[in-house]
Amino acid sequence: MNIAIVRKYLVIHTWTGIVSSLMLFVAFYAGALSMFEPEITQWAQADQRITDAGTDIDKLADVFFASRVDLPPRVTLSLPSETGIAAFHYEEDGQRFRAWLDGAGHLQSGPSPSYAAGDFVDHIHRQGGLPLTLEASEPIIGIVALVYGVALVSGVIVLLPSLLRDLFVLRLARNVKRMWLDAHNLVGIGSLPFHVVMALSAAVFCLHDIVYDAQNTLVYRGSPPAEVLPPVKRAPGVDVSDTRAWLSPSQVIQHLDAAAPSFVPMTLRYRLAGPNAATVQATGGDDTHFKRSPREGYVVLDLLGGDVVDTTYLAGQETGWGAWLSGFFAMHFGSYGGLPVRLMYAVLGILGAFLFYSGNLLWIETRSKRARQDPAVLERPRHVHCLASLTIGASAGCIAGLSLAIAASRWLARAPVSPEAVAHVAYFATFAACLAFAFLRGFERASAPLLVAAALATVFIPLTSLFAQFGLWGGANKSYASAYFLVDVLSLGGALLLLFVARIAQRRLRRSSSSVSSPSLHHTNKITQP
Predict the structure, then answer these.
(1) Could you tell me whether strands 96-101 and 86-90 are parallel, antiparallel, or unpaired per DSSP bridges?
(2) Closest to 40 in 3D by CA, of 504, 507, 464
(3) Average pLDDT, stretch 392-411?
């Protein structure tokens, strides 16, 4: 390949990578955490669990519907699991309530928190860490995803001439730039299919509103076709509001087993108003097929006869369009194959964050080396200093901010403050503090302390569970669910990895300090030898 062409694509790859790297770091790291969104939510709400709730879902449904003179338009029943059963519904004022049966079989009810820590992590993922609403940030992330796609294509072209020679080479020598380049290339090529899927699907997800608006204007002339369920066929004069004629939850599950034996229902969402009243949408998983949402597939049944009304998003029985759409969503969400695939996606997400971080470090090393070769230049160029500080500050700030936001969601769950506001303040305040520290101290001197701070913030998650388990805070939590264990173990592993990287950064700083002619490191943009 002509060397001039490679150089042109190297310039394209470099600048598209730098422009998109930091937002993509946040999106990939938060996306890796969002693979465990339900577990994070359960962990954050562990101390709000109802430990004496009954387990008879049929009795709960009978008592709840019989107690209501005016039924809410939608009611959700969570099916028996280690986190208990309950009925969730919204009142006219928009407040969310939870109803359950106590140990004596009496119906109890109370406000239910609508905030979920897992949702907050997902929002940071979808926003790329921008302090904007989803509506404002998603188009920006969509454009960043397109730039990210250009960076992928140009990076592959740059690597083609040396692909076979350097693909599986990782030279751990004193040449730091060479080591970072080998690691960057290895991770980039090894996970290229994953990144292509992420870039394409993220662009579609974030820009689809713009596409739909244009389609409605140009194709449907302002009158897009309505998406409605097929009409439910019932005998004339049937009273759909008579709850005594409805199937019990157990009977609904029996009909569901007959229609889809491998489908595992998690919730039953009752639709009690509108043209398709007295239907129930069963949500659940089938790890042998793609699922429409990050965790669930859907099937709608008639509450009176148990007939299947709609299988558009029922795993394995979708329509042609539904199957294509579910596959497209599932490839982004990792909603197939169960826990092993979710763990794989989480690892790929972390490696993706490393890819963007290492790409910035390569640029920083290159510009610093060029400056060192010029005897007239005594300090690192200001733009290099700014990007270096921004890279370590934003990366450590994202990690520490998300960890503290998750922990704060549990510590302050019962405080008279908005839990969503608590999470936002914890994340963005930590993020801003890490950025400020990085700019004040400089890349070399800030790296190790910020990585240690991120590790301490992350280890605070399993420590919180430890305090609760032994009654050191919030009362003893005797019912330790498997979801909590997954969150605690992964957080502990992440904290240990961060401490390991911090140790490497500290060693490098010591070597750099001993190799420069001047021992003073008080200038944040002073050039140091790698």
Answers:
(1) antiparallel
(2) 464
(3) 94
Q: What pLDDT score was predicted for residue 345?
A: 95
Taking only the tens place, the pLDDT of each residue in 163-200 is: 767 666 667 666 667 777 888 888 888 899 999 999 99
Q: If we measure between CA atoms, which residue out of 250, 254, 248, 256 comes closest to residue 303?
A: 248
Token pair for 195 = 């990144």
How would you class 228 by CB atoms within 10 Å of its CB: exposed for 0-12, middle for 13-18, buried for 19 or more? exposed
Query: Which range (122-131, 209-218, 418-427, 516-525) has the least confidence?
Result: 516-525
Q: What pLDDT does 314 receive?
A: 81
- pTM for the complete prediction? 0.86
101: left (phi over 0), alpha (psi -120 to 50) or beta: beta
Helix (H) or strand (E) holding 89: strand 86-90
pLDDT at 413 over 90: no
Estimate the share of the chain in helix, then strand, then coil, as percent rounded to the nearest 5: 60, 10, 30
- Per the document, the length of the chain is 530
- How large a percentage of the chain has pLDDT more than 70? 83
Which is nearest to 396 in space by CA: 424, 368, 436, 362? Answer: 436
Count CA within 13 A, CB hemisphere, residue 414: 7
Where in 146-187 does DSSP place strands (E)? none
Tokens standing for residue 186? 């290895």
CA distances to 68, 86, 110, 113 from 95, in Å = 17, 16, 10, 9
Closest CA to 65 of 303, 302, 337: 303
State how far the Cα of 77 lies from the Cα of 94, in Å rounded to an integer: 18
Q: Of 356, 397, 343, nearest to 32 (Cα)?
A: 343
Residues linked to residue 270 through DSSP beta bridges, in sequence order: 75, 280
367 Cβ partners below 8 Å, 6+ apart?
380, 381, 384
Question: Model confidence over 35-66: pLDDT tens digits?
Answer: 999 889 888 887 766 655 567 888 888 888 88
Q: What is the pLDDT of residue 137?
A: 92
The owner of tokens 């609403």 is 133
Spatial separation of the C-alpha atoms in residues 395 and 435, rounded to whole Å: 9
Indicate the pairing of strand 297-302 with strand 96-101. Answer: unpaired
d(CA 101, CA 56): 9
| Contact by Cβ (8 Å): 146, 4 | no
Taking CB atoms within 8 Å and a gap of at least 24, the contacts of 90-94 are none
